[in-house]
Design goal:
By secondary structure, this protein is an alpha+beta fold. The chain is built from eight helices and 18 strands. The protein is 27% helix and 22% strand.
């Protein structure tokens, strides 16, 4: 099972939902970057459980410790180990489910593949694994911001059938996103979304949603044709997240209903560079960034583990009634915002280092 992402900026995550701790090893971070736990903690705090009554009640501070790879607050260019201890572990909540694969969860497939699994909390398939991604992404994001001025902002654009109006991609900010619990920058839509999540929570059910993400100030030239196109790498990264079921970029599936004459992004001179009048391409053409904002969406399914009683079958095929007793989010999208931002940062960081290597070796 691969737990490593990246070519030059390589991130390996470790840990299960109810083990002693989770984290990541980051290999390939350039030396000399000022880095302390304070640079990483804000994104982990946005991801942590127990933030509100819209999330799982599991209480974890998710405090990160840097164990290696820095000295006197600067990166050394050596592997960086990041560890976050699990403190509110309750594996006993999952005793009944050790013999019953939860519907639409990874219990069945992991058991069939490996002949064993972590039955408490889903183990590596749990969203708790994403802590290491967020920590590693925070490092990448700081470097990208300092070197290129890159800004990455994600927000909740839909919950169930409630969709928020489009936002100003040039100015949307994290403070705007974090202004409410659901992390939707449109107040009216946010209120309706929060009401819907509370409704499904009361019914011991769950609901899915969509996140939109914009990456601004990304330089031209990132992406490796043919199989490592930038949008392909972004899609792979996003669809590796728990509960993801869809990815589209730019005009996405809506673009299939447009004519080429309307969909084409014609070029125009912009200040110091050539740009496009529209951005149906989502900032990527031919698999390579074109300097426009990269805009994509990620679809998350309803959380599989719910408290509502369901008729299913145990591993022997016998019918059982299952009502999950663990602590789970009724809707994962508010906490997924920093996770999507982290995955975007990891991909763009890796692609940036690859492009720098190409430029550095050029004889032209």
């Amino acid at each position: 099972m691969s737990s490593t992402l990246g070519t030059l900026y390589r991130v390996t995550t470790f840990g299960e939902s109810h083990c002693k701790g989770v984290g990541a090893i980051v290999d390939g971070c350039p030396p000399g970057l000022e880095l302390t736990e304070a640079d990483i903690q804000p994104q982990l705090s946005r991801r942590r459980p127990g933030q509100s009554d819209l999330t799982t009640p599991r209480q974890e501070a998710d405090q990160v410790t840097i164990y290696s790879g820095t000295e006197f607050g600067r990166t050394l260019g050596t592997p960086i180990m990041l560890l976050i201890n699990n403190k509110d572990q309750r594996p006993q909540d999952y005793g009944e489910m050790s013999q019953v694969p939860r519907p639409s969860h990874a219990d069945f497939t992991y058991q069939m593949k490996y002949g064993i699994r972590a039955s408490s909390g889903g183990g590596r398939s749990s969203a708790r694994e994403t802590i290491g991604r967020v920590a590693a992404g925070a490092i990448a994001e700081k470097w990208l911001r300092q070197i290129y001025g890159i800004e990455i902002v994600a927000w909740v654009s839909a919950v169930g059938d409630i969709e928020a109006p489009e936002v100003a991609l040039e100015t949307i900010s994290r403070p705007e996103v974090d202004a409410n619990l659901i992390r939707c920058p449109n107040t009216a839509a946010a209120e309706r979304m929060e009401a819907l999540v509370k409704e499904v929570l009361a019914a011991k059910d769950s609901i899915g949603g969509i996140l939109t993400c914009v990456c601004r100030n990304v330089p031209v030239g990132l992406g490796e044709p043919v199989f490592d196109k930038l949008e392909a790498r972004l899609a792979q990264a996003m669809l590796s997240l728990p509960a993801t079921k869809g990815f589209d970029i730019g005009s996405g599936f809506a673009g299939t209903r447009m004519r080429g004459s309307r969909h084409n992004d014609t070029f125009v001179k912009k200040t110091a560079r050539l740009g496009t009048r529209t951005n149906h391409s989502g900032g990527i053409q031919g698999g390579i960034s074109n300097g426009e904002p990269i805009v994509f969406r990620v679809g998350f399914k309803p959380v599989a583990t719910i408290g509502m009683e369901q008729e299913t079958a145990d591993f022997n095929g016998d019918k059982v009634l299952l009502a999950a007793k663990g602590r789970h989010d009724p809707c994962v999208v508010p906490r997924a915002v920093p996770i999507v931002e982290a995955m975007a940062a990891l991909v763009i960081m890796d692609m940036t280092l690859q492009q720098q290597a190409r430029q550095g070796s050029s004889l032209v």
